[in-house]
Amino acid sequence: MSSAAPSPPATVSGASYAVAPVTMAHYKAADSKREQFRRYLEKSGVLDTLTKVLVALYEEPEKPNSALDFLKHHLGAATPENPEIELLRLELAEMKEKYEATIEENKKLKAKLAQYEPPQDEKRAE
User: Fold this and answer.
1) pTM, 2 dp
2) How would DSSP label each residue in 32-61?
3) Ramachandran region, residue 22 (left: φ > 0; alpha: ψ -120 to 50; beta: rest)
4) Which of 3, 44, 67, 72 could disulfide-link to 77, CB 3.0 to 4.6 Å?
């Protein structure tokens, strides 16, 4: 075997760049991280869901103008990513509570009023 001298730095348009040696260990580490991430996506059901949506897009007879919008729609991306939607949901829940409290108060006030007013039949008799 001959001992090769280190290669000179690469030059591009007069500038020189040192070429870093890439080792197999570097590739294995990247592959390991990639494999871990793939298993994570598989375990959490992401790969399954993406596959189903992409198959639905593939089988769509008339392809939509925006494939990205199709994916968002079928993945449910219209859910509360928008902070305004979340605020509206909270406001709606508060309003429902106030409505229920008002209904209860109305029932109590009607009952109280009925104690002080004669029944409708007695008023007509007068």
Assistant:
1) 0.40
2) HHHHHHHHHHHHTTHHHHHHHHHHHHHH-S
3) beta
4) 72
3 state SS of 6: coil
The 8 Å CB, 24+ separation contacts for 51-54 are none
Positive or negative torsion for Cα 28, 30, 33, 38: negative
CB of 37 closer than 8 Å to CB of 29: no
d(CA 68, CA 73): 9
Tokens for 13, please give them.
């348009």
- Enclosing H/E stretch for 114: helix 83-116
